[in-house]
Amino acid sequence: MFVPLKGSWALVFGVSSGMGKKTARALAEAGCNVIGVHFDLAEGQQRRAEQYAETLGGLGVEAHFFNRNIAAPRARAELVPVIRDLTSGVGPRIVLHSVAYGTLTSLLPARTGQEEEVPEVTQQQLTMTVDVMAHSLVYWIQDLVRAALLPRGAKVFAMTSAGGSRVLSGYAPVAAAKATLESHVRNLAVELAPRGVAVNAIRAGTTITPALLRIPGNEKLVAHCRGVNPGGRLTRAEDVAEAIVALSVSDSPWLTGNVIGVDGGEALVV
User: Fold this and answer.
1) Residue 29, by phi and psi: left (phi above 0), alpha (psi -120 to 50) or beta?
2) Which residues contact 260 (CB under 8 A, 6 or more apart)?
3) What does residue 123 show for φ and ψ, rounded to 5 degrees?
4) Dihedral sign from CA coordinates of 159, 161, 165, 168
5) Helix count (H) and strand count (E) of the chain?
6) Beta-sheet strand order (sheet of 198-204)
7) What is the DSSP string of 2-35?
8) What is the rounded distance in angstroms from the CA atom of residue 239 to the CA atom of residue 185?
9) Rounded Cα distance, 136 and 70, in Å
């Protein structure tokens, strides 16, 4: 059986949940070893992540998960040497930035129906959200390049959403992070082009993930998108995983700097 990514390595941020989790499995099924980084504080969540790493290892690949705050400089200082050792100094062929950790609120105080007033976002919350969900991609790529661990032919993917260019209630800080992330993708694509590294953002359609379920009013969003999607259903995390595997097989760096919709045509009709 042809295993397209056999022996290569992927670095997956947000590996314990949502898009990161499903993509890690799809990559492992394609023969790719996985270095996963997640940030889970609850003991049960940590254990589930450890069990998932064992599950991936059962597919015949190496899977090493690390519970770290990816936005912390200390995490990069600790893990970059580990990445060097695990990949024998080559570095990951695939880097997936799938991070959903930020504040969901409005820029200004808001009241929805008879509910309590939602407070406006604070400077600390806004700074944290954009730093974790957008700037952290840049910091990791800087360190990987500095350590010569981003080889020619590598693919970098960042998970964005339609919320980066639309207004959704209670989503403003994350929307700012997604818009910033897409800007970083464009600039990284240009700056990494001479190195033969492609950088793209993946804009998934509406997908039932833990992150989506935390968005205020997600029930209405889900119902609307399910009703209008030309494909007749919502996007699944497996759809995104399949697309990332397909885009990772080629060594060509020529598909770069894009926001690639994986949504069954949802963005065309909403």
Assistant:
1) alpha
2) 200, 201, 202, 203, 243, 247
3) -60, -40
4) negative
5) 10, 7
6) 63-67, 33-38, 9-13, 94-97, 155-160, 198-204, 259-262
7) --TTTT-EEEEETTTSHHHHHHHHHHHHTT-EEE
8) 21
9) 7
CA 33 to chain centre: 17
Asked if 256 and 200 count as a contact pair (C-beta separation under 8 A), the reply is yes
- Summarised one tens digit per residue, pLDDT across range 79-97 is 999 999 999 999 999 999 9
What residue type is assigned to position 233 of the chain? R
125 with 105: CB under 8 angstroms? yes
Scanning the structure block, which residue is given the tokens 């023969």?
31
> Are 248 and 12 in contact, with CB atoms under 8 Å apart?
no
Domain over 9-112+129-269 is classified CATH 3.20.20.70 = no
Residue whose token pair is 């893990």: 79
Q: Give Cα 119 to chain centroid, integer Å.
A: 28
What is the DSSP secondary-structure string of 28-70? HHTT-EEEEEE---SHHHHHHHHHHHHHHHTTTS-EEEEE--T
Closest CA to 52 of 41, 72, 66: 66
Residue with tokens 């949802």: 266
pLDDT tens series, the chain, 270 aa: 566 899 999 999 999 999 999 999 999 999 999 999 999 988 899 999 999 999 999 999 999 999 999 999 999 999 999 999 999 999 999 999 999 898 999 999 876 655 667 789 999 999 999 999 999 999 999 999 999 999 999 999 999 998 888 888 888 999 999 999 999 999 999 999 999 999 999 999 998 888 888 877 788 888 888 999 999 999 999 999 999 999 999 999 999 999 999 999 999 998
Domain assignments of the chain as residue spans, ordered by start: 9-112+129-269
Tell me, yes or no, if the pTM score tops 0.90: yes
